[in-house]
Amino acid sequence: MKFISTRDLSHAVDFKTALLHGLAPDGGLYIPSEIPRLPPDFFSTIDSMDLHELGFQIIKLFLPDIPESILQKIIEESLSFPIPLKKLNNQTYLLEVFHGPTLAFKDVGARFMARILSYFLNQEKRKISILVATSGDTGSAIAHGFHKMENIDVFVLYPSEKISRLQEQQMTTLGDNIHVLEVLGTFDDCQKLVKQALLDDNLSRHRLLTTANSINITRILAQIIYHSWGVVQLHQLGEKRKPILSVPSGNFGNLTAALYAKRMGIPIQHFIAATNKNAIVPLYLKTGKFKPRASQKTYSNAMDVGNPSNFERMQVLYQHELSQMQAEITGIPISDKETLETIAKTYQATQEILDPHSAVGLAAAEIYQQSFSSNTQPIIVTATAHPAKFQEVITEALKQEIPLPASLQKTLNLKKKTSKILPNYVEFQKILIK
Ligand SMILES: *Cc1c(COP(=O)(O)O)cnc(C)c1O
Q1: Does the CB atom of residue 214 touch ligand 1 within 6 A?
Q2: What is the pTM of this model?
Q3: Fewer Cβ atoms within 10 A, N terminus or C terminus of the chain?
Q4: Cα separation of 73 and 52, whole Å?
Q5: Distance from the CA of 300 to the center of ligand 1, in angstroms?
């Protein structure tokens, strides 16, 4: 299995190169040269399949060179928490991908990438530094995913006093190989420092450097597993019709993984690209024009993305044909007002508390159901985060506070370990070389 650049389909590298570099030299993203099909006998066993077996069956097709016993262990450790499918009403299901350590789906990709990376580094006795600039959620998933992994140092940069206390506590209290730098500046300053370091030849002579955001194909591969797991669970519940998947989207890594699941042969009818008012992809699906712009702030802030990075991967999948993409994906943007209403309405009807991102997914699913009312296919909404991570929004929607899960409560009492730095490259470089 080779991996190729979205910008030059003839530029092929092995998986390890795609993993270590993240981005292709031409600036494109790596994608599998072909999407492997699950073998026909796979489907005769799905009624008794569990999450780990499913994950193994999927990933070994992409990474056939990793010994099976090692791959099995990596999958068990990466998916060490349940990913249940909950029935919300006759037609709608929630796939809860937020029971990991930082209570959002990003744990899956981060944990998987950390372990795969560690496997390759151990083989070569090399060390790597991972640099991540974060405005909140990615940093904590990466910090937890990579905590105590051998041969890996993580440097997380976040803008001082510009993230929530919960987010800050989640990533700054780990220590060990997780080095958290509180930058006295903005998120853009953090990102600039990271980019500068990644391009610094002097530094890369000292050690391997990379980053771990969702441009890395390794994270996407891991996410194929849970979308497939949602469909398998639906089957196990006795619902044999093909579902529609509604995926709350920002950079569109999550939706890309779902599209790959279908290409592998997982029975999926259609996709809903649910966004907030940063509706770049829904607008593209409507007008054929892809117009990135500055992101606008919303209640579903992890989806405030004005230039979705994985759109390139989607374009290649549909051979840059708008009509092909339209045939499989419906884009539906949701306002902040609709997000709050959906949280309130769902709570009243089912006692289920949705986080604002999952609420965007459900609101889009409901709009889809209303506009195609003859369609009674089941819809699976990806529930991307635990509501307790977004206390302020929930309080506004429900006029009541919700209790923090014990794990978060505990985090709040731990001591923060950070170094403060000015947004100054020389200072950052000194820390990296130490
Ligand atoms: C990152 C994130 C998203 C968006 O996922 P993409 O893969 O970037 O589309 C949605 N919800 C939550 C809670 C997130 O953290």
Answers
A1: yes
A2: 0.94
A3: C
A4: 9
A5: 9
